[in-house]
């Protein structure tokens, strides 16, 4: 109980610190963050971030399975978790399952997604896909800006989240295909985080 309260206090302190750091940024300036592979140590924070930012319930198995995918990444700023991307290999490409940013519109989501595309490209993976709720304007705008296009719209895809998600429960299935000779740019640094303030 004491431990839970301590974690809650630490989380609140980190949120306040992040608010101050974000307030100090210029309009449109990205929050600098470092990327790392998803590690068990950060799972509680990743879960909390999903819960705070997404109206869809993800099971514990979802996060546990993510640990075995080398494509899952976290973004941190000064030891505070600020973003996460969960992704797995599927049908010869990569399927982005969830992407969350703690602070909106500070370049966290696009940094994670760009890093994924560049890392995948370096391994010869050229196909990317994802589902997104048809009312999720921010995510659709981000995916659109990254070259994803709606291939089909699936009716009632999010039927299991009827209690928490705004109707209609439909999803756009968006895909992005890189050309074989598409320039990839410099490979992003995705480094181990040796210590994380937010670890559980
Ligand atoms: C979707 C989400 C991950 C986007 O991450 P983000 O860090 O806020 O996005 P970025 O700052 O990298 O934005 C990159 C570009 O995407 C577009 N974009 C992002 N959010 C937008 C918004 N609210 N409205 C319009 N365009 C938006 C813009 O083109 C933006 O570039 P700009 O800010 O230079 O104009 C974030 O809003 C989020 O966590 N949402 C809740 C969780 C979620 O819905 N995840 C997706 C489904 S799994």
Automatic annotation (TrEMBL):
Gene3D superfamilies associated with the record: 3.40.630.30
Keywords: Acyltransferase, Transferase
UniProt xrefs under PROSITE patterns: GNAT
GO molecular function: N-acetyltransferase activity
N-acetyltransferase domain mapped to chain residues: 33-170
One Gene Ontology cellular component: NatA complex
UniProt keyword Acyltransferase present: yes
GO terms, biological process: mitotic sister chromatid cohesion
PANTHER family (alphabetical): N-ALPHA-ACETYLTRANSFERASE, N-ALPHA-ACETYLTRANSFERASE 50
Record protein name field: N-acetyltransferase domain-containing protein
Biological source species: Effrenium voratum
